[in-house]
Amino acid sequence: MYERLDGRRLNRATLARQHLLGRVDRRPLDVIRDVAGLQGQDPDPPYLMLWNRIEGFTVDGLTSLQLDRSVVRATLFRGTLHLVATDDYLWLRPMLQPMLDRWQRGAWGKALDGVDLGQLAKTATGLLDGGTLTRPRLSRALSEVWPGHSAMALARSVQGLLPVVHPPPNGLWNRHGPAHIALARTWLGRPLSPGVALSTLVRRYLAAFGPATVKDIQAWSGLTRLREVVETMRPHLVTFTGEHGEELFDLPDAPRPDPDMPAPPRLLAPLDNLVLAYADRSRLVGPGAAARVGWEAAVLIDGEVRGFWTVARGDDAATLTIELLEPLTGDQAGDQEAGIEAEAAALLAFVAPATARREVRLRIPSATA
């Protein structure tokens, strides 16, 4: 009989590995590795993810890594944009190719019916061999070869068919505009590293998110048929039973803190992998928040998603509004409210440092009789 881990113990294990039980004094590059990459469809959220985890984090801490090519932004897990350490990208990208092939077919297959994908990859390689192109320029060039097909589908498909990256200025703080695309080998000046064992990916996931099920690993990565991989690793893993009888796997020496360890409030960035990296998100997300997680920026209270936040700017003012889903109750309610407001004020100062007027609005539902 395996030891049973309830949701509270899983919650604290995840928060510990994601550096959310307390900010850490570690280099941003090390933290990016620790948490297995940062989801980054938009430029600013990865900065907020690191701000939540690193004591004294500054914008330059991530910008410099992108400019010196220590970190790369590319289509990876689940067919979404992620920032990862360049050393990790070199083995991750070829490992994820089967999933990216499925992603390309699922997202753009119908729109490109009749297009030879091998020829599309070859043509795109030729266009990008000269350096970096914006996505609109790449779209127009590909449309000249396949005029009867969607320009967007042609250009977006390249992200799945080829190892391409989005170099700066894409991904830099407060930088918005057309995506830039470059061949990975050109931008990084280094070859990919195919042939790395899938067990490496499993270990990295468990180090960042475990204990977890095979389904969780697959939901995070987008890969399928990982049961066999995990089974071969079983002698080197520890196993537990979840609340519903599911089998959980973990690394033997990974942290599994006391379930009563305090968890400070955190205002998560949009699309933080903390709440997206599981098939079963119940260790962090209750039923009342489940439909909004992934679309809105979540608020953690005592380690659980119990609200959402937004920032509005205008006329040299910035307002951060927090909407809690339920009242704060119990002996810690006052401390929790003060902690949320302090965290929100600090985040607002980070995102709008030059704004003259900053305001935090905390909306808490009234307790019902």
Could you characterize what this model shows?
- This protein has 15 helices and 14 strands.
- The chain is 39% helix and 17% strand.
- The protein has 369 residues and is of the alpha+beta class.
- Helix 6 (97-108) packs antiparallel against helix 9 (151-161), helix 7 crosses helix 9 and helix 8 crosses helix 9.
- The mean pLDDT is 95.
- The strands form four sheets. The chain has a five-stranded mixed beta sheet, with helices on one face. A three-stranded mixed beta sheet has the order 1-8-9. A three-stranded antiparallel beta sheet has the order 2-4-3.
- It folds into three domains: 9-188, no CATH class; 198-250; 285-363, no CATH class.
- Pfam families: AlkZ-like.
- GO terms for molecular function: DNA binding.
Distance between the termini: 43 Å
Say how many strands there are: 14
Helix/strand order, N-terminal first: EHHEHHEEHHHEHHEEHHHHEEEHEEEHE
Radius of gyration: 22 Å
Which outline best applies?
globular
Number of helices: 15
Beta-strand content estimate = 15-25%
SSE class = alpha+beta
Oligomer: single chain
Proportion of residues in helical segments: 25-40%
Please summarize the sheet with the most strands.
5 strands, mixed
Average pLDDT, all residues: 95
| Spans where pLDDT lies below 50 across 5 or more residues | none
Main sheet strand line-up: 10-11-12-13-14
Integer tally of domains: 3
